[in-house]
Amino acid sequence: MPYDPKNIFAKILRGELSCQKVHETPHALAFHDIRPQAPIHVLVIPKGEFTSYIDFCRMASNEEMDGFWRAVGDTAKKIGADSGGYRLIVNSGVNAHQEVPHFHVHILGGRTLGAMLSQQ
Ligand code: 5GP
């Protein structure tokens, strides 16, 4: 799927929409999810235009890849996700209910997170 520059995270990256920023590096931006599903719910997005994780793997430079995944870990540490445990989630495509077509990682924690998958 071609990248849609009108998606919400692209607008956040361009400064057209605000966000509650947690962490920023040359390759990544982390901010609080607008509809948190746990006491800790932060999104980490790469600054480049990647629709899905597969797009990211195929098109990101080694520097972007390295910078992004290090930023995920640094963000998790910064928000205290490791105290008590946390979960990283990447939704890609229709079956995974991906809502925003800009690759992102959810960091969730702060409570027991239950089963890995819903039974629906
Ligand atoms: P997805 O289902 O694509 O993996 O997750 C997209 C996430 O983006 C959802 O958890 C949703 O709450 C969050 N989200 C949608 N719009 C906005 C927004 O304008 N600002 C922020 N901070 N989060 C958003």
Task: Describe the 3D structure.
The chain is 25% helix and 22% strand. Strand 2 and strand 3 form a beta hairpin. With 120 residues, the chain is of the alpha+beta class. The chain is globular and about 35 Å long. It binds guanosine-5'-monophosphate. Residues 8, 17, 19, 31-35, 43, 91, 97-100 line the site of guanosine-5'-monophosphate. Guanosine-5'-monophosphate binds at residues 8, 17, 19, 31-35, 43, 91, 97-100.
Portion in beta strands: 15-25%
Provide mean pLDDT, rounded: 96
Continuous helix count = 3
Each distinct ligand: guanosine-5'-monophosphate
Helix content: 25-40%
- Main β-sheet, spatial strand arrangement: 1-2-3-5-4
Radius of gyration: 14 Å
Task: Please trace the helix and strand order, writing H or E for each element.
Answer: HEEEHHEE
> Which blocks of ≥5 consecutive residues have pLDDT under 50?
none
Structural key phrases:
binds guanosine-5'-monophosphate, alpha+beta, 120 residues
SSE order and pairing:
Blueprint: H1 8-13, E1 21-25, E2 28-32, E3 40-46, H2 53-59, H3 62-78, E4 86-89, E5 105-109
Antiparallel strand pairs: 1-2, 2-3, 3-5, 4-5
The structure holds guanosine-5'-monophosphate.
Residues 8, 17, 19, 31-35, 43, 91, 97-100 line the site of guanosine-5'-monophosphate.
